């Protein structure tokens, strides 16, 4: 997009003499915006780099559902979190013509800080903040009355079934062997068999859906905050918990779970489900990157390792939380 197009877009907001800095183009095109007073914002153009990444979350209704949640989250949470900025018409989503087709855009407040790093995950205080903040987010979700969920992605039983089919479709392309695809299928079937029917195929809870080092930041005040709710939707709360555990060294995961559960830890059944969600999160990464040819060699190399070192032990009933 040209700078002129972006400036016309920003004319829809009360931002005086904005200066833009391009950040990245992945799930969205993102820019840091600074006004004449030095206040900063995050501008998102909901247009993924690879069209295969495009989903419900990029539609106008999907973006609106995410922003409604973020606005309510900002009002509910006592401390600062990233919040949407309404345009001059009072709308959360701004639609415009760009590159020959209709695009959706949103503006968020800026969270000053830095991405979480692997080094941070050795810090006991950071781990405690991670578990506590996730618990706070899920507490908000439990009382929030969501809107537009039909336009949001979900990560329940049906999602797991679709992931298996995507992995099978990679066999003719030479991405995966048929034997490995069967192991993934068996793994996802076992995961689903342990899930309740509550929430039907979408899952009973609201979730962030994409917890990772790049979507958790340490703020300038030393707080931990989640950002990038692009995969917010229905699912199981333990999906987020599993993703949080995967961020950490195996010997730090118990401390994270204690912070999340308020010191009481997990039951045996919760641990079994948690380990399944950890594998589902890893498989989900493969599926999300399926259309990205730059990742194909990595997938060919890593899938046999995932099957041998994680999935097979899981299918045999062995504990994988501490691997």
From TrEMBL:
It comes from the Bacteria. It holds the Pfam family APH. Keywords: Kinase, Transferase. Residues 24-265 form the Aminoglycoside phosphotransferase domain. GO terms for molecular function: kinase activity. This is Ser/Thr protein kinase RdoA (MazF antagonist). It comes from Paenibacillus amylolyticus. The lineage of its organism: Bacteria, Bacillati, Bacillota, Bacilli, Bacillales.
């Amino acid at each position: 997009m040209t700078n002129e197009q972006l400036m016309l877009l920003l004319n829809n907001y009360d931002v005086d003499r904005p200066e833009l800095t391009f950040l990245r183009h992945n799930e969205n095109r993102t820019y840091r915006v600074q006004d004449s007073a030095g206040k900063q914002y995050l501008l998102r153009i909901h247009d993924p780099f690879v069209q295969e990444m495009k989903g419900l979350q990029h539609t106008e209704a999907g973006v609106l559902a995410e922003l409604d949640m973020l606005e309510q989250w900002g009002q509910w949470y006592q401390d600062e979190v990233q919040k949407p900025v309404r345009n001059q018409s009072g709308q959360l989503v701004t639609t415009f013509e760009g590159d020959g087709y209709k695009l959706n855009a949103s503006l968020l407040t800026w969270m000053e800080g830095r991405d979480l790093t692997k080094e941070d995950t050795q810090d006991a205080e950071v781990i405690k903040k991670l578990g506590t903040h996730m618990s706070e987010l899920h507490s908000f979700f439990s009382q929030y009355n969501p809107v537009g969920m039909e336009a949001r992605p979900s990560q329940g039983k049906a999602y797991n079934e679709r992931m298996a089919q995507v992995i099978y479709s990679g066999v003719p392309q030479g991405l995966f062997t048929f034997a490995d695809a069967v192991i993934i299928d068996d793994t996802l079937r076992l995961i689903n068999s342990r899930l309740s029917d509550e929430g039907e195929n979408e899952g009973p809870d609201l979730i962030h859906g994409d917890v990772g080092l790049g979507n958790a930041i340490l703020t300038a005040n030393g707080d931990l905050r989640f950002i990038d709710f692009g995969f917010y939707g229905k699912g199981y709360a333990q999906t987020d918990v599993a993703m949080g555990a995967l961020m950490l060294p195996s010997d730090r995961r118990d401390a994270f779970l204690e912070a999340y559960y308020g010191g009481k830890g997990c039951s045996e059944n919760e641990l079994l489900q948690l380990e399944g969600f950890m594998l589902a999160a890893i498989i989900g990464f493969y599926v999300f990157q399926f259309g990205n040819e730059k990742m194909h060699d990595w997938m060919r190399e890593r899938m046999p390792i995932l099957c041998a070192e994680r999935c097979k032990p899981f299918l045999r009933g062995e504990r994988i939380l501490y691997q």
